[in-house]
Structures are given as C-alpha cells and as structure tokens.
Specification:
Layout lengths: L3 E2 L5 E7 L4 E6 L4 E4 L4 H9 L3 H9 L5 E4 L4
Antiparallel strand pairs: 1-2, 2-3, 3-4, 4-5
C-alpha cells in the first residue's frame, strides 16, 4: 500500500485502501499497523486534522480491529 508522509510527532506516514477500507499507519518507531473496516471519511478527517495523531488516538486506534504488518526485507 502506498503511504504518504505526514507531519506528526508520533506518526510517520499513512495510507488508505478504499476498496478494502484498510487504513495503514506507520509510526515514527517504524512499526506499521493496518486498521480494518475504516470508512474513508475517517482517513480524510485524520489528514485534515490539525493534529493527526490526536485524531488517530481519539477516533481510530481503539475503535477498529487492527494487525501489525511485518515488513519484507
């Protein structure tokens, strides 16, 4: 999934797959997680938020199922 860099103290980049409603979040520490069944409006709102990490922590982190993505070498 293609991710775009964002300005945030906690998050490094985010991506979204609208066909499968998957939000992919890369943290500054390099960990990548995919959140399932996330509506596109949540992704858009997070990008538009003055503090994307705060939006993520408030509205997404604990409200959607997720899994850690192991990065390929």
């Amino acid at each position: 999934m293609n991710r775009q860099t964002i300005t945030s103290p906690e998050l490094s980049a985010v991506g979204y797959d609208p066909a499968h409603e998957i939000l992919e979040v890369e943290f500054k520490n390099g960990a990548v997680y995919q959140f399932e069944q996330v509506p596109e409006y949540e992704f858009t709102a997070m990008l538009k938020a003055p503090l994307p990490a705060k939006y993520f922590n408030t509205y997404i982190r604990n409200d959607y199922e997720y899994k850690r993505v192991e990065m390929e070498d």
